[in-house]
Structure formats: C-alpha cells, structure tokens
Amino acid sequence: MDKRFRQSAGLMLCLGSALGTLAMVLHPVGGSMQHIINIQPIIVFSHSLAIFCLPIMGFGAWGLSVLLQTPSRIALLPFFVFCAGLIAAMLAGTINGLVFPYYVERYFNADVSKDIVNASLNYGRYLNAALDYIFIAACAFAVGGWSVMILVTRRLPQWLGYYGGGIIAVGMVGVVTGFNFISVSGFTIFVLGLVSWLVLAGVLMWRSQNTKNR
Q1: Is 15 left (phi over 0), alpha (psi -120 to 50) or beta?
Q2: Which of the residue ranges 35-39, 87-91, 131-135, 148-152 would you say has the lowest mean pLDDT?
C-alpha cells in the first residue's frame, strides 16, 4: 500500500471523526416547536457539518480496508456496509436537520390542522429513528469486521482489534438490556465509541512504517 495513500486515509479518518464529534457537541436537544424555530440556525449548521464529514470518513474507511486487504478481498465487505451506514446517516441528517426545522417554521402558525402537522412530524421521527438504527448496525458490523481483519493480518497493532471487539461486546450488552441507542445521549455515547476507534485507527495508519504482516 502506498505510504501517501495510507497516511492521507488515516488523516481523513481522524478529520472526519473530529468533525462528527463537533457536530454532536453542537447538536441541540429537542423541545417545543417554538424552541426548534428559535434554534433553527444551530440545527441546520450542526447537521450540515455532520453530513459534510461523512464522505471524509468514507475515504478514510476505504484506505483502512485497502490496508487490511487479503487475497479474498473480504476486507471490502465492512467498507461497503459502512458506506451503507453513511448513506443512512446522510438521509437522517437531511431529514432531521434540513427538512424538519423548515417544516416546523412553515406550518407552526399556519392555518393547518395541528393533528396533520403532528402526524407528519411523527412520521419523520419514525423514519429518522429507522435510519439511525441502520447507521448504528452498519457501523458496528464494520468496526467488528475491521477488528477481525486487524487480528488476522496484523497490519495494525492487535490491541486495536481487541478494542473494537470490546466496543461491539458492550453494544451487544446494550441491545440485550434494552438501551436506547437513538436517544440523544445514547446516540452520542455510540458515536463517541465509534469515533475513538476510528481516530485510533487513523493515527496508527499515519504512524505505521510497515504495512506487511508482522
């Protein structure tokens, strides 16, 4: 693997993860419709930033999959699943951050039945929740797959593979115990766990001097 590609991919993993973390920090907590209208600029900016970081993370994930590639090309499977999750996250961010606030502003005081408005908003929330679950499941599968490939190929330190396995194990415990991963706090916890693994992977890709098995 070309050193410049490896390092640029590692840098993009770190940059995309940092921008995603910033978007989560700026992400406002929901409230009344009037509150949503008042904080509309923050909602739009935070979700736009989140959408912007997705292709950056995708490029980094591509480089990571190339680094961990074997003759079977199985390392591309986590990459494609991860990209599916990024697409789901893009759709969720578009609905929740670019459509939802303008929809509320347009119809909050309009001469439209509040029941119709609330029904439309609830539909958007259910759609957004489904997309969040797709994103979470795709990322968990990808991190788990990459972690296994790290243990098999030894092209990155093995402790990163074990760390990824630990994150997936904790996530499975959360699923069994009914933890709400799509609440603001639950989603933040998941994203921070994902970000920590991706940042570590990016840093190790940047610093790695030898991409051969070791």
Answers
A1: alpha
A2: 35-39
Q: Nearest Cα to 197, choosing from 6, 64, 92, 94?
A: 64
Nearest to 87 by CA among 68, 61, 64, 65: 61
**CA end-to-end distance (rounded Å), the chain:** 15
Instruction: Identify which of 47, 78, 59, 65 has the alpha carbon closest to the alpha carbon of residue 15.
Output: 59
What number of H helices and E strands is found in the chain?
A: 8, 0
46 neighbors 20 (Cβ within 8 angstroms): no
If DSSP codes are grouped into helix, strand and coil, which group holds residue 71?
coil
Tell me the per-residue pLDDT of 181-190, one tens digit each, with 9 for 90 and over: 666 666 677 7
From the list 20, 21, 27, 18, the residue with the least C-alpha distance to 46 is 27
Tokens standing for residue 210: 């030898």
